[in-house]
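<amino_acid_chain>
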Amino acid sequence: MNSQRPKVAVITGASQGIGARLVNAYRRLGYAVVATSRTIPAAEEPDVHTVRGDIADPATAERVLDAGVRRFGRIDTLVNNAGLFLAKPFTDYTRAEFDSVVGVNVAGFFHVTRLAVPHMLAVGGGHIVTITSSLVDNADARVPSVLTSLTKGGLQSATKSLAIEYATRGIRVNAVSPGVVRTPMHSEEDHAALGGLLPVGRMGEPADIVDAVIYLENAPFVTGEILHVDGGQSAGHRA
């Protein structure tokens, strides 16, 4: 393998919001990027390759990793950014909503991560970062979100388990646990109310989450970490 090839990051949920900014951030680090989402357009630069597909489908994970190796020759980092968030009372969730959230948040993580690890081992190591949610650790009755806790909480536990399993094999595994972030997921009229849920009194910005991911990328002694970037939500609540 050509050791002069740039490192390669795979980023899921990469068409907008945090994911699109992660693509730019990894390019600034000198990485080539494989970016995927259901609606992502074709890339306009040679060191970014896009794959359109539903990450809940195992075939999408296969196409993403195959494309990365075929195009760039290696896989070094995986950012599991794709996710669904649906806040509603527990008994109001439908079976279809359960299947959809579990499909993206859990199956999507499982399939692409399982396929990425052997490629990382082949180049001597790598880094897996997963975006979770601060609500996992800090339930809030104003935002009933059992499916988030069920799925993203599982990913936080999986992060620690994988970090220990691969600690001596060169693969670091971490997570970023955001509070409410200003993305297209939230409508403008809800921003003030959502910001009021956090101790700092405002929503986070996509750049806050991107900065946390890049910190972890550049922190070789950090693994198994759940990094809360949540405006104080994990610390407590204002009176």
In short: The chain has one domain: 8-133+142-177+205-227. The chain has a mean pLDDT of 92. The CA atoms of residues 80 and 130 lie 5 Å apart. DSSP finds six helices and seven strands in the chain.
